[in-house]
Write a structure and sequence with these properties.
membrane, ThrE_2, ThrE_Dicarb/AminoAcid_Exp, cell membrane
C-alpha cells in the first residue's frame, strides 16, 4: 500500500490519466497528429475542473462547469491551431462522460435493485445533460462576446 504525502499525488495521477484518455480518443477519432497533445490537455483541464469542483458541489453542477471549461479550452486551441473546435471538444469531453454512473445504474437493474438504479440513472442522465448544456452555453457566449469578423469582399457598399 502506498502512503501519499499529500492529496496532490492522486490528483496528478488523475491528470495524467485524463490526458492520456483524451489523447487516445483523439487517436481513435483520427485527429491531426499535431493536435493530440492539445486534445489531451483539453480533457485534462476539464477533468481537473470536475474533480476540484466535485469536492464542493454536486456532480451535476460540477460537470456543467467542467464542460464549460472544456469548451473554452477547445475554442482557444482551435484558434491557435486553426482547426475546427469539434476536434478538441469531442476528445476533451470524453473524461467527463458518466460511464461509471451509468454502469452502476444498469448493474442495479440487472441485480433487481430498482430502488438503487433509479437515482443512479437519473444522475447519469442529468450529468449527460449538463455536458450538452455546457457545450452549447459556452459556444453561445463565445458567439455573443467575440466580435464577428466580416469579410470585406462579400460586403456590398451601402448607398
Amino acid at each position: 500500500m502506498v502512503a501519499y504525502v499529500n492529496d496532490a499525488l492522486p490528483l496528478i495521477g488523475q491528470a495524467v490519466a485524463s490526458l492520456i484518455a483524451a489523447a487516445a480518443f483523439g487517436v481513435l477519432f483520427q485527429v491531426p497528429k499535431r493536435t493530440l497533445l492539445p486534445c489531451g490537455v483539453t480533457g485534462m483541464v476539464g477533468w481537473l475542473a470536475y474533480v476540484l469542483l466535485d469536492r464542493r458541489l454536486d456532480a451535476v453542477p460540477a460537470t456543467l462547469i467542467a464542460a464549460l471549461v472544456v469548451t473554452v479550452a477547445a475554442q482557444l486551441f482551435a484558434r491557435t491551431y486553426r482547426i475546427p473546435v469539434i476536434v478538441f471538444s469531442v476528445a476533451g469531453i470524453i473524461p467527463l462522460v458518466p460511464g461509471g454512473v451509468a454502469y452502476d445504474a444498469m448493474r442495479s437493474v440487472v441485480e433487481n435493485r430498482y430502488d438503487d438504479s433509479l437515482p443512479l440513472a437519473a444522475k447519469a442522465f442529468m450529468m449527460s445533460g449538463a455536458i450538452a448544456v455546457g457545450l452549447v452555453l459556452s459556444e453561445v457566449v463565445n458567439q455573443l462576446l467575440l466580435p464577428k469578423v466580416k469579410n470585406a469582399k462579400h460586403e456590398e457598399p451601402q448607398p
